[in-house]
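To the structural biology subgroup,

Please find below the input and predicted structure for ER membrane protein complex subunit 4, which we are adding to the shared reference set this quarter. The sequence is reproduced verbatim from the submission form. If anyone notices a discrepancy with their own records, reply to this email rather than editing the shared folder directly, so we keep one authoritative version.
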Amino acid sequence: MSLTKTNKKFKWALDFSQKSRTSASDLPSPPGYSQATNANYSESSKDTDSNLLLIKKLWDVALGPLKQVPMNLFIMYMAGNSISIFPIMMVGMLIVRPIKALFATQSTFKMVEGTQAAGQKFVYFIGNVVNILLALYKCQSMGLLPTHSSDWLAFEEPLTRVEHIGGGISML
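Predicted structure (tokenized):
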């Protein structure tokens, strides 16, 4: 493998004049490698890897609504409690998205089978119910839910406020 020049061998020189081709079968296997265990591992590992990947993906889908709760809380805080178009649209989206997701649960989990299917569907259901409850709380804090008897009965008097507080300039 070395190139000679006037009977001197250079340390880093390669001899390309010889055409010795080695194939992959001529090379020895690395220590600890066995062809028989590799064949068994490849067949079984493909099945288990695909099953584990599918289970992980479905758990990500099932936990998706619960991962949206912090963002929904932030959106509720930023929208405020005033009755205007922006907070109404936010509350509408907070209610509509989980309800649509609950009706589409079967199509979302159509490829789920096995022992974890019921747990995944239950977690998905609970996550959407939590988001609906957050939206209902926001509606109640904005005063959009009929929580007093005067809200639906005409002969009941609405609650009267005893005190009113407002900002402004003090006139001395």
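Summary notes: The mean pLDDT is 79. Residues 69 and 168 are 38 Å apart (CA to CA).

Regards,
Lab coordination
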